[in-house]
Amino acid sequence: MGNNTNMDDTFNFDTLAVRSGTLRSEFNEHSEALYLTSSFCFSSAGEAAERFKTAETSYTYSRFTNPTVTMFQDRLAALEGGEACMATASGMSAILSVVMAALQAGDHIVSSQSIFGSTIGMFSQIFGKFGITTTFVDPADLDAWQNAVRPETKMFFLETPSNPLTEVADIEAISKISKAANALFVVDNCFCSPALQQPLKLGADVVMHSATKFLDGQGRVLGGALVGSRQFIMEKVFPFVRSAGPTLSAFNAWVLLKGLETLSLRVEKQSANALEIASWLEAHPAVKRVFYPGLPSHPQHALAMRQQKLGGAIVSFELKGDTPEQQRANAWRVIDNTKVCSITGNLGDTRTTITHPATTTHGRIAPEAREAAGITEGLIRLAVGLENAQDIRNDLARGLDAAA
Ligand SMILES: *Cc1c(COP(=O)(O)O)cnc(C)c1O
User: Fold this and answer.
1) pLDDT band at residue 139 under the 50/70/90 scheme
2) What spacing in Å lies between the alpha carbon of 208 and ligand 1's midpoint?
3) Same domain for 183 and 236?
4) Which residue among 9, 111, 359, 369 has the highest number of C-beta atoms inside a 10 angstrom radius?
């Protein structure tokens, strides 16, 4: 194994996306090889003994390392501007791995309250069983982050923009509070992807991904990743993943590698489509409010434009209605009248997806808590894809015009 096309950080993002992390075999294949093998052979007992001693850097067994997975890890590390990456089977197993690697019973997490529903469940229920507690704070309130710090605080956790209301939090400002508290600052970069936002450059210690979303970008496979310092990834995360086995499969790594090659093209076009649709929605008489960081009406528009290259692909909007029942009826009418958008929970796909968060992704939250979080019955989340933006507007207009 050799002929790694060594790329350094003098190359730009788009070059790194297609060329970094390539490992070529003795056949000199041009595209990345898919190594579907659970183990690797040795020429002698002595060589086996030697390779098992250096399992981090040599190939023995695919729960530990696999060349296709290594290529994905190296490419994503290059795109996030990190030293090293550990891939995992899903986004949730990346969160499991970072907490198991960095924390122990008695430790405390300060987390944004506006994070992925399953992440809230992991923090409040699963880790709670093992003596790791979490305080949830309003991500935009810097004093709240500061005031939540305790002597046993070991981790800060943030997702920006948030799901589904696209709230934007100041990564750089929160990183300073985290640093002063000696905590590990983990940022879930799922919504922007490194094509739009690179949290490590803004002071985050670890970037976490659900590769299932924009990194694959075509709705095919599950995957996750953690990117950070070589020391943290290799000395803390790798021993956990190697032993516990939430490893990314070689096949999924290969699919994700090819996804990374088109990441910036897709996300930039999806952001342009999203901005066009968000601006149009804002002017529609049936729409009460649009949540999109790329719109000047977004409360953190200036911060978003400083921190992100573009607004991203997620647009949420709230429909008018005199009662929650009427709001829900209007939202469902829009969703049920679409012919192009897919009614599904996934996001980050080339296909536009449409969701009613209050009855699906956020359906298990108590109604009062849901209203307090701003996820009303009239809210629709759109994850804009690569279709023609006018076709998506026409698709939404059928139900919106009927509601107006
Ligand atoms: C989907 C998602 C996750 C979980 O990722 P899986 O790959 O589904 O395990 C975590 N964070 C965010 C922001 C997500 O959208």
Assistant:
1) very high
2) 10
3) yes
4) 111
CB atoms within 10 A of CB 179: 14
The domain boundary residue, chosen from 230, 261, 292: 261
Residue 50 has pLDDT above 70, yes or no: yes
Query: Which domain range does residue 216 map to?
Result: 13-261
Is residue 90 in contact with ligand 1, taking CB distance under 6 Å?
yes
Return the pLDDT at 8. Answer: 62
Which of 95, 116, 123, 162 maximizes ligand 1 atoms within 8 Å of its Cβ, making it the mutation to test the pocket? 116
pLDDT above 50 for 390? yes
Ligand 1 atom at minimum distance from 222 CA: 7
**Cβ of 273 less than 6 Å from ligand 1:** no
Per residue in 226-257, pLDDT (tens digit) is: 999 999 999 999 999 999 999 999 999 999 99
| Alpha carbon of 96 to ligand 1 centroid (Å) | 12
Both tokens of 301, joined, read 């528009």
Q: List CB contacts of 327: < 8 A, sequence separation 6 or more.
A: 318, 319, 320, 321, 376, 377, 378
Give a yes or no: residue 5 inside a domain: no
